[in-house]
Specification:
Blueprint (H helix, E strand, L loop, with lengths): L9 H4 L3 H5 L25 E4 L6 E2 L2 H9 L3 H9 L4 H7 L5 H7 L6 H10 L5 E2 L1 H12 L3 E6 L3 H7 L3 H4 L3 E4 H4 L6 H10 L7 E5 L2 H8 L4 E4 L3 H10 L4
Parallel strand pairs: 1-4, 1-6, 4-5, 6-7
Antiparallel strand pairs: 2-3
Length: 240
Protein backbone atom coordinates (compact mmCIF):
# COMPACT_ATOMS: atom_id res chain seq x y z
CA UNK A 1 0.00 0.00 0.00
CA UNK A 2 0.50 3.83 -0.74
CA UNK A 3 4.01 2.75 0.81
CA UNK A 4 0.74 3.94 0.67
CA UNK A 5 0.31 4.32 3.00
CA UNK A 6 3.31 5.07 5.16
CA UNK A 7 6.45 7.20 5.78
CA UNK A 8 9.86 6.72 4.17
CA UNK A 9 12.68 8.71 5.88
CA UNK A 10 13.43 8.30 9.60
CA UNK A 11 10.61 10.64 10.53
CA UNK A 12 8.38 9.11 7.91
CA UNK A 13 9.37 5.44 8.03
CA UNK A 14 7.78 4.97 11.44
CA UNK A 15 4.20 5.95 12.08
CA UNK A 16 3.41 8.42 14.80
CA UNK A 17 0.80 6.36 16.62
CA UNK A 18 -0.68 9.30 18.48
CA UNK A 19 -1.26 11.47 15.43
CA UNK A 20 -2.67 8.57 13.41
CA UNK A 21 -5.01 7.60 16.21
CA UNK A 22 -6.54 11.08 16.21
CA UNK A 23 -7.88 10.64 12.68
CA UNK A 24 -11.61 9.92 12.53
CA UNK A 25 -12.68 7.22 10.04
CA UNK A 26 -16.12 8.11 8.68
CA UNK A 27 -17.89 7.83 5.34
CA UNK A 28 -19.30 11.23 4.31
CA UNK A 29 -21.96 12.43 1.93
CA UNK A 30 -20.64 12.88 -1.60
CA UNK A 31 -20.68 16.39 -3.06
CA UNK A 32 -21.06 16.74 -6.78
CA UNK A 33 -18.53 18.85 -8.68
CA UNK A 34 -19.83 22.30 -9.58
CA UNK A 35 -19.20 24.25 -12.78
CA UNK A 36 -17.15 27.09 -11.25
CA UNK A 37 -14.00 27.68 -13.30
CA UNK A 38 -10.92 27.31 -11.05
CA UNK A 39 -9.14 30.16 -12.90
CA UNK A 40 -11.73 32.54 -11.47
CA UNK A 41 -10.34 31.82 -7.99
CA UNK A 42 -7.03 33.48 -8.81
CA UNK A 43 -4.58 30.58 -8.93
CA UNK A 44 -2.88 28.48 -11.60
CA UNK A 45 -4.29 25.10 -10.57
CA UNK A 46 -6.94 23.07 -12.37
CA UNK A 47 -6.29 19.60 -10.96
CA UNK A 48 -5.94 18.37 -7.37
CA UNK A 49 -4.31 14.96 -6.94
CA UNK A 50 -4.94 12.92 -3.80
CA UNK A 51 -3.02 10.11 -2.15
CA UNK A 52 -5.26 7.61 -0.32
CA UNK A 53 -3.55 6.37 2.85
CA UNK A 54 -3.61 8.92 5.71
CA UNK A 55 -5.18 11.47 3.35
CA UNK A 56 -8.54 9.94 2.42
CA UNK A 57 -8.34 6.59 4.23
CA UNK A 58 -7.43 5.70 7.80
CA UNK A 59 -4.85 2.97 8.33
CA UNK A 60 -3.06 2.15 11.59
CA UNK A 61 -0.91 -1.03 11.58
CA UNK A 62 -0.26 -0.68 15.29
CA UNK A 63 -3.97 -1.13 15.96
CA UNK A 64 -4.11 -4.23 13.78
CA UNK A 65 -1.13 -5.81 15.52
CA UNK A 66 -2.53 -4.99 18.94
CA UNK A 67 -5.97 -6.34 18.11
CA UNK A 68 -4.67 -9.53 16.49
CA UNK A 69 -1.77 -10.38 18.76
CA UNK A 70 -1.84 -8.00 21.74
CA UNK A 71 1.44 -6.37 20.66
CA UNK A 72 2.60 -3.10 22.22
CA UNK A 73 3.88 -0.30 20.02
CA UNK A 74 7.46 -1.26 20.86
CA UNK A 75 6.85 -4.90 19.88
CA UNK A 76 5.27 -3.76 16.63
CA UNK A 77 8.12 -1.50 15.50
CA UNK A 78 10.06 -4.15 13.60
CA UNK A 79 6.97 -5.34 11.77
CA UNK A 80 5.80 -1.84 10.90
CA UNK A 81 9.22 -1.04 9.43
CA UNK A 82 8.59 -3.83 6.93
CA UNK A 83 5.85 -1.68 5.40
CA UNK A 84 8.58 0.67 4.19
CA UNK A 85 10.76 -2.13 2.80
CA UNK A 86 11.57 -2.77 -0.85
CA UNK A 87 9.73 -6.10 -0.58
CA UNK A 88 6.54 -4.38 0.50
CA UNK A 89 6.91 -1.80 -2.25
CA UNK A 90 7.21 -4.62 -4.78
CA UNK A 91 3.79 -5.80 -3.60
CA UNK A 92 2.44 -2.31 -4.16
CA UNK A 93 3.97 -2.41 -7.63
CA UNK A 94 2.09 -5.64 -8.34
CA UNK A 95 5.35 -7.57 -8.78
CA UNK A 96 4.82 -10.06 -5.93
CA UNK A 97 1.81 -11.46 -4.08
CA UNK A 98 0.85 -10.98 -0.42
CA UNK A 99 1.78 -14.62 0.13
CA UNK A 100 5.29 -13.95 -1.19
CA UNK A 101 5.55 -10.91 1.05
CA UNK A 102 4.56 -13.00 4.08
CA UNK A 103 7.28 -15.49 3.22
CA UNK A 104 10.00 -12.89 2.60
CA UNK A 105 9.16 -10.88 5.72
CA UNK A 106 8.46 -13.84 8.00
CA UNK A 107 11.37 -13.17 10.36
CA UNK A 108 10.86 -12.52 13.28
CA UNK A 109 7.07 -12.47 13.10
CA UNK A 110 6.42 -15.78 11.38
CA UNK A 111 4.87 -16.33 7.95
CA UNK A 112 1.46 -17.33 9.32
CA UNK A 113 1.22 -14.25 11.53
CA UNK A 114 2.38 -11.97 8.74
CA UNK A 115 -0.33 -13.42 6.53
CA UNK A 116 -2.93 -12.75 9.22
CA UNK A 117 -1.74 -9.15 9.34
CA UNK A 118 -1.99 -8.80 5.56
CA UNK A 119 -5.44 -10.40 5.50
CA UNK A 120 -6.67 -7.91 8.09
CA UNK A 121 -5.42 -4.82 6.26
CA UNK A 122 -8.21 -4.20 3.73
CA UNK A 123 -10.90 -4.24 6.41
CA UNK A 124 -9.05 -1.54 8.33
CA UNK A 125 -9.07 0.91 5.42
CA UNK A 126 -11.95 3.28 6.16
CA UNK A 127 -12.65 6.83 4.95
CA UNK A 128 -11.33 9.78 6.93
CA UNK A 129 -13.88 12.47 7.75
CA UNK A 130 -11.59 15.46 7.24
CA UNK A 131 -10.01 14.05 4.12
CA UNK A 132 -13.34 13.50 2.39
CA UNK A 133 -14.51 16.96 3.50
CA UNK A 134 -11.45 18.50 1.85
CA UNK A 135 -12.14 16.48 -1.30
CA UNK A 136 -15.71 17.75 -1.34
CA UNK A 137 -14.59 21.37 -0.87
CA UNK A 138 -12.22 21.05 -3.80
CA UNK A 139 -14.91 19.51 -5.99
CA UNK A 140 -17.36 22.26 -5.07
CA UNK A 141 -14.88 24.80 -6.43
CA UNK A 142 -14.79 23.05 -9.79
CA UNK A 143 -11.37 21.42 -9.75
CA UNK A 144 -10.75 18.09 -11.43
CA UNK A 145 -9.67 15.47 -8.92
CA UNK A 146 -7.36 12.49 -9.36
CA UNK A 147 -5.94 9.64 -7.27
CA UNK A 148 -2.24 8.73 -7.25
CA UNK A 149 -1.70 5.85 -4.85
CA UNK A 150 0.81 3.17 -3.98
CA UNK A 151 -1.70 0.40 -3.43
CA UNK A 152 -1.64 -3.38 -3.70
CA UNK A 153 -4.48 -4.99 -5.63
CA UNK A 154 -6.04 -6.71 -2.61
CA UNK A 155 -6.39 -3.31 -0.90
CA UNK A 156 -7.67 -1.64 -4.07
CA UNK A 157 -10.54 -4.13 -4.11
CA UNK A 158 -11.60 -2.76 -0.72
CA UNK A 159 -11.55 0.96 -1.56
CA UNK A 160 -12.77 0.98 -5.16
CA UNK A 161 -16.48 0.73 -4.40
CA UNK A 162 -16.79 3.83 -2.23
CA UNK A 163 -18.86 6.43 -4.07
CA UNK A 164 -16.39 9.25 -3.48
CA UNK A 165 -13.64 7.08 -5.03
CA UNK A 166 -15.77 6.30 -8.08
CA UNK A 167 -16.33 10.02 -8.69
CA UNK A 168 -12.69 10.94 -9.25
CA UNK A 169 -11.87 12.15 -12.74
CA UNK A 170 -9.06 9.62 -12.93
CA UNK A 171 -6.87 7.32 -10.86
CA UNK A 172 -3.43 5.75 -11.11
CA UNK A 173 -2.66 2.82 -8.80
CA UNK A 174 0.86 1.46 -8.47
CA UNK A 175 -0.06 -2.20 -8.82
CA UNK A 176 -1.64 -1.55 -12.24
CA UNK A 177 1.48 0.09 -13.69
CA UNK A 178 4.34 -1.84 -12.00
CA UNK A 179 5.87 1.35 -10.57
CA UNK A 180 5.38 3.40 -7.42
CA UNK A 181 5.90 6.79 -5.84
CA UNK A 182 8.33 8.49 -5.61
CA UNK A 183 9.56 7.11 -8.97
CA UNK A 184 9.21 9.67 -11.77
CA UNK A 185 7.49 7.15 -14.02
CA UNK A 186 4.26 6.99 -12.04
CA UNK A 187 3.81 10.77 -12.05
CA UNK A 188 4.48 10.81 -15.79
CA UNK A 189 1.86 8.10 -16.30
CA UNK A 190 -0.72 10.23 -14.48
CA UNK A 191 0.11 13.33 -16.53
CA UNK A 192 0.15 11.48 -19.85
CA UNK A 193 -2.93 9.33 -19.23
CA UNK A 194 -5.15 12.31 -18.49
CA UNK A 195 -3.33 14.95 -20.61
CA UNK A 196 -2.54 17.08 -17.57
CA UNK A 197 -0.04 19.93 -17.38
CA UNK A 198 2.25 19.54 -14.39
CA UNK A 199 2.14 23.24 -13.50
CA UNK A 200 -1.66 23.08 -13.26
CA UNK A 201 -1.61 20.21 -10.74
CA UNK A 202 -1.35 20.14 -6.95
CA UNK A 203 -0.61 16.88 -5.14
CA UNK A 204 -1.62 16.04 -1.54
CA UNK A 205 0.29 13.13 0.04
CA UNK A 206 1.22 12.23 3.62
CA UNK A 207 4.86 11.46 2.71
CA UNK A 208 7.35 14.22 2.04
CA UNK A 209 9.42 11.89 -0.14
CA UNK A 210 6.42 11.50 -2.49
CA UNK A 211 5.86 15.25 -2.65
CA UNK A 212 9.54 15.71 -3.47
CA UNK A 213 9.09 13.15 -6.23
CA UNK A 214 6.18 15.11 -7.72
CA UNK A 215 8.17 18.34 -7.62
CA UNK A 216 10.85 16.84 -9.86
CA UNK A 217 8.13 16.69 -12.53
CA UNK A 218 6.95 20.24 -11.83
CA UNK A 219 3.92 19.23 -9.76
CA UNK A 220 3.47 21.32 -6.62
CA UNK A 221 2.50 19.52 -3.43
CA UNK A 222 1.28 19.68 0.15
CA UNK A 223 2.50 17.22 2.77
CA UNK A 224 -0.54 16.07 4.74
CA UNK A 225 0.92 16.51 8.23
CA UNK A 226 -2.66 16.79 9.41
CA UNK A 227 -5.85 17.81 7.69
CA UNK A 228 -6.07 21.25 9.31
CA UNK A 229 -2.64 22.00 7.86
CA UNK A 230 -3.86 20.94 4.41
CA UNK A 231 -6.91 23.21 4.74
CA UNK A 232 -4.69 26.15 5.70
CA UNK A 233 -2.39 25.55 2.74
CA UNK A 234 -5.31 25.26 0.30
CA UNK A 235 -6.66 28.57 1.59
CA UNK A 236 -3.25 30.23 1.22
CA UNK A 237 -3.17 29.06 -2.40
CA UNK A 238 -6.73 30.44 -3.00
CA UNK A 239 -7.93 26.95 -3.90
CA UNK A 240 -10.78 26.93 -1.38
Amino acid sequence: MDNNILSQDKNQQELDEQSVAQLEPVQLEIVQQKTIQPAALGNKYKNIIFDLGAVLFYFNPYEILHDLFGFTKEQSQVIVKNISSSTWLDMDRGLITPEQVAEKLADPFGKENMMKFLDAMPGRLVPLTQGVEILNLVRQKGYKTYILSNLAEFCYLKVKDYDFVKQFDGAIYSYQHKCAKPEAQIYEILLNTYSLKAEECLFIDDLEVNINGSKTLGIDGIVCKDHNYVLDQLKLLNII
